[in-house]
Amino acid sequence: MTTISYEEDIIAWANQQAWLVRNKKFELLDIEHIAEEIEDVGKSEQRELASRMAVLLCHLLKWEYQPARQGASWQATIKTQRERIKNRLYKTPSLKNCLSDPEWWADAWADARDKAEKETDISYEKFPEKCLWEIENILFDNWFPQDFAAG
């Protein structure tokens, strides 16, 4: 059997590795790259959660800082992101660890501030340096930041 290189074609490589596992050809497995790919699956899940959280936080920032522009579209985005985040946390419980990781939160919050700046006329510096909301509120279906709370 001709082995396919990981660098040559990752999809063909992955299919071949799966075939080797199913056919118990363990001695032919590319163990190092398989381990990397397994780790990347976890990182991908974390990135998806962070991306969804950044979108949610961005819309909550817009909700708070632009009360005159609040509308059904923002509500729908907030609702959708909350549902998808909760679904991810349900299906992959270990992702809940991210929610208590200060570095993960700092990145998600910075991304939310970046998005909010791009989607509004409000500069990045006008938004708080750290998220002021509790995760329980952020994910609660009927919670929205108070209008004019940004002062």
Secondary-structure-derived class:
mainly alpha
The 3D shape can be described as elongated
Mean pLDDT equals 93
Radius of gyration: 21 Å
Strand content bin: under 5%
Which range best describes the helical content: under 10%, 10-25%, 25-40%, 40-55%, 55-70% or over 70%? 55-70%
Q: Helix and strand string, N-terminal first?
A: HHHHH
With helices defined by DSSP (H or I, 4 residues minimum), what is the helix count?
A: 5
Largest sheet entry: none
* DSSP strand tally: 0
Low-confidence region ranges? 147-151
How many angstroms does the end-to-end distance come to?
68 Å
Fold blueprint:
Elements (H helix, E strand, L loop, with lengths): L9 H13 L8 H35 L6 H20 L10 H18 L15 H5 L12
Task: Please summarize what this structure is.
This protein has helices at about 10-20, 30-65, 70-90, 100-120, 135-140.
Index terms:
disordered C terminus
Structural description of this entry:
Residues 147-151 have low confidence and may be disordered. α2 (31-65) packs antiparallel against α3 (72-91) and α2 (31-65) packs across α4. This protein is mainly α. It is built from five helices and no strands. The N and C termini lie far apart (68 Å).
